[in-house]
Amino acid sequence: MNRKWKSIGFAAFAAALSLSASFAEAAGVLTIGRREDSTTFDPIKSAQNVDNWVFSNVFDVLIRVDKSGTKLEPGLAESWTVSDDGLTYTFKIRDAKFSDGSPITAEDAAFSLLRIRDNEGSLWSDSYKIVETAEATDPKTLTVKLKTPSAPFLSTLALPNVSVLSKKAVEAGEDAFAELPTASSGAFTVKEWRRGDRVILEKNPNFWQADRVKLDGVEWISVPDDNTRMLNVQAGQLDTAIFVPFSRVEELKKDANLSVLIDTSTREDHLLINHEHGALAKKEVRQAVDMAIDKKAIVDTVTFGLGTVANSYIPKGSLYHYDANYQYPYDPAKAKAMLAEAGASDLSLNYVVNAGNEVDEQIAVLLQQQLSKAGITVNLQKVDPSQSWDMLIAGDYDISVMYWTNDILDPDQKTTFVLGHDTNMNYMTRYKSDKVKDLVAAARLELDPKKREAMYAEIQKTAKDDVHWVDLYYSPYINVARKNVENFYQNPLGRFFLEDTVKN
Amino acid sequence: MSAGAMSLPSAGWKTFLGRRTMLVVGVSILLLFLIMAIAAPLIAPYDPILQDGASRLQPPSLLHPFGTDNFGRDILSRIVWGARIDLQIAFLGVAFPFVIGTVVGTIAGFFGGIVDAVFMRIVDIILAFPFLVLMLSIITILGPGLSSFYIAMALVGWVSYARLIRAQILVLKTSDYAVAAVSLGFGRMRIMFRHLLPNAIAGSIVFSMSDAVLVLLSGAAVSYLGLGVQPPVAEWGVMVAEGQSFITTAWWITLFPGLSIVFLAFGFSILGDALGELLGVHE
């Protein structure tokens, strides 16, 4: 027994030695811990942040959003011009290569734009239906004709899902490309994808800004449990971790080896209201619900003070956010009186909660108590997230908390989804207002930024007055990195600038 | 190193404690929780669902002996009130399967033949599924909530009792007094439930004690997954689940309800062992 223990001890020592050796070799490779693993590498076939955040570092786009998340800057398109009628866009493509060494041409750019519009598997085709034609007038010039003028068109080109892909590589086999792209236009190439575990990226030497990239590679590692992921960073097994729970920030800040990074995001959490259900159809009742909710208490309890109270569906800091928008005061007594006046003093609401979502469950418990002070009975219904989405779409709910993060810089996308009377019943709320509907459509066509801003202010005011939903709070992206990692940054649209990240 | 070296000599602690002591300890633990549940309004220092934003995440202190959770609710009060729910889970979660299983097992064992074959195949089918998976699917279909849990428990849990009783009845029905009862012309119902069952049931009673442990833990597991008790009602499994995200910063939210589950389960388990010895049942 004694000898056995000795040999075990020796083996453990040897293992520890070889382990530290393998860590030393991995210098220059940044490991990032996140909840879920990627689902695909075909950009048009995903609408999830987990995928988009990896796409932005593997594929490049024609036009990028800058670090502040408020301006567009040239990407693979060196420059562009717009015709006076706002219908024809001409892009000059930069001298750049795919990772396989072949040149990036206007042909590839046109192919990628038409593919996201026409491909059956595309989740984004609606956003690009406005494109009439896209063709390569010469190898370096892309000409796009639109059906109608569109103010948000340029910003939709910055979406990671419309990244420029190699026509040759995609046509060689779409499914194989989705598993392991053979040519990439971004800072990194996909070396290996261990499904359910990690995505291994390697520096792309042919990237047009290759001299900007300091890292040899990046590994996106899936560690679903929040506590484990934080422990991994604290123990140095991961360089960085994203999705830091609000409750852990204070404690992680005290760790001298770590820096907690709080970056502005476009995330807004809100309470959806089903306008078709009974008394909720009345504006006064919805206003009473808004007044019965203490948003400050949610910010304090759920986000530990890291969030800010929301006053508009367009998040603070985003384009056309109307900062002077009205905010319903927290006043349960007045809410109760308003409900009585509207004949809804015995209001009872079904609240669909995502089971297993820490933040969702906490908000639910808080709201239940707050609303009860205004005499509203809330029945919590915890359901699996896959099921809750279907219930919202079917209208099988009274209230439910959801969140939204912007994909593009322009407010048009979210506005269309939320207020534009699009295909999804105004984001499941079944809100109806012809005034808002017309304004949304008009704002899309208006090319003068000043006039557009005024229109969006009007939209935000009207939606607030109608209580299309209850704005709860804005919250930042919270990531944690070890002290030897620099420039680990995420812009408000979620893009990680890994081309600038340094690991010392 | 062999596995045997690691584990304790089996049943060592039983001989150490002694049969009587075990019985006393087991009954005392259950009584303790029962009193706590019944007198909850008198014992609990605070309202179990009252939120207090000013005293969130307080560590154990004189004011809050078990600390407070992230909504400022008093953990001790929640545990005291939670005893009501958890004892109810343990009792009802065992009672339904016990009754159903006993009736089915008696009938199957007594009649034999086609009746026995049909019932036992149903038992086989249910046993073919993993217990928790079957439970969760039934609850998912019925919708979350405690009543769904009891229904699922009744649908799934009876099979063990049925098997136990059936095996006993099979042996007993050939015994002299059973044959004598038949020859005296007693009715089948009388023979089954007056003569055979009282002699066959001891094993099930002992088993029900250890089953209570399993039920208690599945109840906690189901609530943990969001399918059982719905917030803001205090239940120990839910409390453990809610405290999970604070485990490194506020350990008291999870520790105390977790200990309560362990303690109550221990009470049932030790009582089961003592009853087994007392009734002469060997598992």
Please, could you describe this protein's structure?
The complex is a heterodimer of chains A (504) and B (283). Chain A is of the alpha+beta class. Chain A has helices at 2-25, 49-58, 106-118, 153-156, 167-171, 174-179, 226-234, 249-253, 283-291, 295-301, 332-341, 358-372, 385-394, 412-419, 434-445, 449-466; strands spanning 29-34, 63-65, 72-74, 77-82, 88-93, 131-138, 141-146, 188-194, 198-203, 217-222, 240-241, 258-273, 308-309, 348-354, 377-383, 399-404, 469-482, 485-486, 502-503. In chain A, strands 1, 8, 9, 10, 11, 12, 13, 14, 15, 16 and 17 form an eleven-stranded mixed sheet that branches. Chain A has a four-stranded antiparallel sheet with strand order 4-5-7-6, covered by helices on one side. Chain A has a two-stranded antiparallel ribbon with strand order 2-3. The longest helix of chain A is centred in the N-terminal third of the chain and has 24 residues, at 2-25. With 283 residues, chain B is an all-alpha fold. Chain B has a single domain, classed as MetI-like fold, CATH 1.10.3720.10. Chain B is built from 13 helices and no strands. Chain B has helices at residues 3-6, 12-17, 19-38, 40-43, 75-111, 113-128, 131-142, 146-172, 176-183, 188-200, 202-224, 236-243, 252-279. The radius of gyration of chain B is 22 Å and the shape is elongated. The model of chain B is unreliable at 1-10 (pLDDT under 50).
